[in-house]
Amino acid sequence: MSRNSITRRSFVGAAAVATLAPCITPAKAAGPIRVISHRQPALEYYTDQMKKALPEGQVSVELMPIDKEVELASITMSSRSDAIDVAYLNDTTMQKFAASGWLEPLDDLWAKYKDEFKLDDFPKSVIESISYNGHIYSMPILTNTEMFFYREDLFKDNGVALPKTMQDYMEAAKKLHQGRVSGTVMTLKPVDGCLNEAHWYLNALGEGWFDKSWKPIFNQPAGVNAISTMKQMTAFAPRGFTSAANDESTINLQQGLAAMGLQWFTRAASMDDEKKSRFVGKINWIAPPGGGQRIANDGFAISKYSSKDKDAIFKMVATAASQESMQRGAEFAMPPRLSVLGDPGLAKKYRWYPGARASLEVGKPFPSMPDFLDVGAIVTRYILQAVTNEKEVKAALDQAAQETTELLQTRGYYK
Amino acid sequence: MAVVLLWPLGYAVYLSTFDYHLGSPGMRFVGLANYAQLLSEARFWQSLWTTIGIAFGSVAVEFGLGFALALALYRLTFSTRVFMILLFLPHIITPVVATLFLKWILTSNWGLIDATLATFNINPPDWLGNPMWARVCVVLADAWIFTPFVMLVLYAALQTLDQAQIEAAKIDGAGSWRIIRHVVLPSLVPVIVFTVSVRLMDVFRFFDTIYVLTGGGPGTATETITMYTYQLGFQLLQVGKASALGIITLVIVAAIIATFSSVLQRGYGRN
């Protein structure tokens, strides 16, 4: 056999090497960038912008309810899997994920692309809300606040004044609770929905969640009064309020099954959408009675375990968060960019902006602790036990406070 | 077999002796502290009683209905196969999908039942929002999915009955109820023990139906041990404590099945 002849063995060997070569050489993982996000109109728009930022087929987006999304992200990232590249996170979940070491710090990429994407356009307060321990972890996509939605026609017809306090709110709910129209929506599905609603009551009527040393105070007399009021309000809520998430409450308002209630700014545009709402132009917005409702800064974070090109991911997210994109996205969500927020045309164009600005002035973010969602998982269960008469309010909140203390003890909050 | 069964079990036992939170950098050995903490928790006991209530409620409904349907099929002289296929349909569908059907039927305001009753100006209960009704709905949902399984097993067992014994009982003047009680049921004891044991084990571990239908709520009204384990493991990411709860569940289920089996065998001996 000559030296130059190709034997079957050498041919098979060469073929094997050629086949395995791509696996041996270090390369970025193939396949589309996988984005997971909560499903709501604003995020549908922004994830769509991400898809358009790259050639078709290079981005896959999955939208789901917030609790499922956070759960999926937690399980995937805690197991250090690269199955998810980008996740939508609000400020509370971002802190938890960053503290757990599951997110890619974005400082270097932020500095690298600062001029290209005009990243100085974000206010300092927003940058702080997407940072943890001095590092940036997320691309801000929307500033969100809960507002008080109300049916202007029903208020007029029944001679009800706009509520300024919780007491006014309860009186209005009593008067407007007629036939198939419930007095108010209540979004009490654990964890997120119930946590938001309780946050409002505990701030408007109570003294909040914790004292300065992270000891629970929601079971103190003011907190018990707040949750007792919440329990009384459930008498005027639509049936199914214990399992109602934002979607259900939005539909209740759109279909005339409720006269008013707390809901996110991002849901306002859909009230004037003829395809979804039966009361276009009849729903209006003000700051929630008593104030203290939740405000949040949400964004998209990159998984530390993503095997895709992080520069490409960052540019994709930054494109979705660009000035031009946010100008169009202002219909669905309050843009965090100063240049867009300062546009006087917004209030003229979108009639819910004045209500949103008033709400932002009286709102409060969740307590700034990475473990607040875990606390919420405990507390919301007991709040629901209280409002459904399974337990006395005081007993339920005491048990919630005890379990919260035990949890925070194990997480090193108390010296 | 040992690798498949004992390795994961051993690993769970190992994990249960650690304070292991997925968000924290390390694991801390705590011995039996996770077990002690769980056994002193009101929430654990509440979830255990909820599990027992739902499990025995579901199995009772499934056995009662399943046995009645099996007897009806056994006595049917025409189209038995057609009826059996129709009755077996709910069990063919994946439980999650079957529960989603039920959720859309039971959901408030725009669910099938509510929408139908609303046209007659009837205000039904809040099926999934009221703690008591939520428990009832979970029991009925599980029964709807698994009664066909019980029916099929008992129907198969009825085919093996000794007809001579039934004929003899009839000659002695026994009515239908006495024949069922004194001839049919004693003959079926081994199959009943098997079926009820399997279902009890299943219901003690069942998760998908509750997860989709109520998520353990409202509050903790339908929070079973598996729902609590899930919440500890996948929401609070407390892997050590969740593993300990898994081991406790295993011990409880084994004890209940052993007790149930021996009591039934003694009470309905094959003599």
Question: Secondary structure elements and their pairing?
Answer:
The complex is a heterodimer of chains A (415) and B (271).
Chain A: H1 8-24, E1 33-38, H2 41-53, E2 59-64, H3 66-78, E3 86-89, H4 91-99, H5 107-112, H6 124-129, E4 131-132, E5 135-136, E6 139-151, H7 152-157, H8 166-176, H9 192-204, H10 221-233, H11 246-254, E7 260-264, H12 268-271, E8 283-286, E9 295-302, H13 310-320, H14 323-329, H15 338-341, H16 345-349, H17 353-362, H18 372-387, H19 393-410
Parallel strand pairs in A: 1-2, 1-3
Antiparallel strand pairs in A: 3-9, 4-5, 6-7, 6-8, 6-9
Chain B: H1 2-15, E1 18-20, E2 27-29, H2 33-39, H3 42-75, H4 80-92, H5 95-106, H6 112-119, H7 131-158, H8 163-171, H9 176-205, H10 208-213, H11 225-235, H12 239-267
Antiparallel strand pairs in B: 1-2
Helix pairs in contact in B: 1-12, 3-7, 3-9, 4-7, 7-9, 9-12, 11-12
Query: What is the number of E strands of chain A?
Result: 9
Percent in helix of chain A: 40-55%
Main interface: chain pair and counts:
A-B, 41 and 33 residues
Spatial order of the strands forming the largest sheet of chain B? 1-2
Low-confidence stretches of chain A: 1-5, 11-27
Assembly of the depicted chains: heterodimer
Number of helices of chain B: 12
Q: Note the beta-strand portion of chain A.
A: 5-15%
Distance between the termini of chain B: 37 Å
Descriptive terms for the model:
heterodimer, A: 415 residues, alpha+beta, two-stranded antiparallel ribbon, globular, disordered N terminus, B: 271 residues, mainly alpha, two-stranded antiparallel sheet, 2 strands, 74% helix
Structure description:
The complex is a heterodimer of chains A (415) and B (271). Chain A is built from 19 helices and nine strands. With 415 residues, chain A is of the alpha+beta class. In chain A, the strands form two sheets. In chain A, strands 1, 2, 3, 6, 7, 8 and 9 form a seven-stranded mixed beta sheet that branches. In chain A, strands 4-5 form a two-stranded antiparallel sheet. Chain B is mainly α. The longest helix of chain B is centred in the N-terminal third of the chain and has 34 residues, at 42-75. Chain B is globular and about 75 Å long. The mean pLDDT of chain B is 88.
